[in-house]
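Q&A log
Question type: sequence-to-structure
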Amino acid sequence: MVTGLGLVTPIGIGVSSFWEGVRTGRLGVRALTRFDASALRTQIAGQVDDFDPANHMEARRPARLDRFAQFSLAAAHMALEDAGLEIGTNGRPNGVASERTGSAIGSALGGLPGSEADHAEFLERGPRSIPASLALRVFAGAGVCNVAIEFGVRGPAIGNSNSCASGAIAIGEALAMIRGGDVDVVIAGGVEAPLAPLTFASFTVIRAMSTSNTVPAEASRPFDARRDGFVMAEAGAILILEEMGHAIRRGARIYAELAGFASTNDAYHMTA
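Response status: OK
Response body:
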């Protein structure tokens, strides 16, 4: 059962703001301003411009985290609050034991884009410029690890990096945990913060992204015969997945039922 939602997106942060953005047709794709993209084929993206990590975590925490991990924590906070769930308080009406809670968060690129500035500094100043936090910021599992630490989640913690399917696969892994009887609740979803010059440009080089620069609103059209690529965007979407009996016993609001999951691959080509 889906019992909680947490969202950090270009059209709204939080369920209410996001849903209002959907209903009113708020435009999330627009000219990229995070850096100068004027020399690139693609000059549009989905930016989250109004995110302040200090609104979602203690003051010193953001400096130690990559942006994608900040999104992970913020979205997880919102999802748990939306679900009315307390981790580590087994026995309370809305409680769940830490050991009966899992986490699964997918991110294709993790903190790699955020490390571009660190690399530039390294080339200029050498090894002494390397921040102590770098190794723990860049790997794709940093999102799920920091969520587990933040909330004391002691069940399985799975971070995957399966390209565009990362979030969906994380939700599938969460379903498997619950069906296997390992946990009652899983914090699950996908998070991405890829808007950095080298990372963004690398996808333009392989002509994977839309070049609808003059009409951004029409750029993302995945099922259209005229589609010319995807639109790169940053966002975080976290669900609280809960075993049906557990959700019913505590009187949780249920958004939807996750009925199944499967995964295959074409074994053919990386981008085709």
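Response note: The first strand starts at residue 2 and ends at 9.
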